[in-house]
Amino acid sequence: MGQPSGTNGTNVVALRPRSVVALCLASAVGVVGFGWPFLTPEPSTLGEHVGDAPYLFVAVLTLVIAVVAAELSEGGMDVKAVAMLGVLAAVGAGLQILSPGAGGFDPAFFVLVLAGRVFGPGFGFALGVVLLFANALLTGGVGPWMPFQMIGLAWVGLGAGCLPRCSGRVERVILAVYAGLTGFAYGALLNLWFWPVAAYLPPGSSYVPGAPLLTNLSHYAAFYATTSLGWDTARALLNATLVLVAGRPILLALRRAARRAAFGAAVTLELDPGDARPPAARSPQLP
Q: What pLDDT, in 10s, does the model give residues 144-184?
């Protein structure tokens, strides 16, 4: 089980060798899923891309389940950690229902960044996937974009748990900057699921199969600036502001919950020394 990390919190999902391998494999699948337009010279059609997305979805889910299974088998993620994962995923999904990304207002990043910071990178990765999955089920937002959203949010949570150690106002400023930057990065990544197959784009912003890398990068930059930048700016500003305004009490509450849950604390059974019954008839008591 992960050890407390100073003022930052507790690594609820310890990154042991098997979980690191699973995370790396899941991330590799994500890199291929997002980056294939810049890696292959072959043309693609919308039908082909939609057909590929479910396979990525299955692969990501399988690898994330492997992370959880590896931790459970090694004692790295106990029942309390699973319960915390479910509670925070429900909170994030609820926020999404109240404001389902309209106009770029996506408050789930706020919960994900703070939780990843407190509970560690492994927990943040798993929370990003479970949160998006729960939200998709509640809102009916299941489609070819879903696997890309899952891995994108998972990376946001993972990165939050890897930020440098600090505390107080400095920590909140760093988290706010991170929430803002990832708001832009998430939007830029998510566009890649449909940009290569969008036939309605003008030549200067459309994907050109077989073109040099720099050409497609410049085309995508033009596409992003004219379509997604304003949307992502709203997301970045909202979550950065939420971290600055409400980050302190939420961080305190999450860390208090982590201390009381005592993640990783060994559970020992003790017998009541005053019990006169035979040892075989005594009921063990939790300390």
A: 778 888 888 989 999 999 999 888 899 999 999 999 999 99
Q: What is the pLDDT of residue 278?
A: 56
End-to-end CA distance of the chain: 20
Measure Cα distances from 102 to 40, 76, 235 in Å.
33, 37, 10
CB atoms inside a 10 Å sphere around CB 149: 23
Q: State the Cα–Cα distance between residues 182 and 113, nearest whole angstrom.
A: 10
CA-to-CA distance for 212 and 59, rounded, in angstroms?
29
Closest of 119, 121, 109 to residue 22, by C-alpha? 121
| Domain 17-281 of CATH type 1.10.1760.20 | yes
Range in 17-21, 26-30, 37-41 with the lowest mean pLDDT: 37-41
Average pLDDT value over all residues in the chain: 78
Are 2 and 120 contacting, i.e. CB atoms less than 8 angstroms apart?
A: yes
pTM of model > 0.85: no
**Any long-range contacts for 16-19 (C-beta under 8 Å, 24+ apart)?**
16/70, 16/71, 16/74, 16/76, 18/70, 18/74, 19/67, 19/70, 19/71, 19/76, 19/122
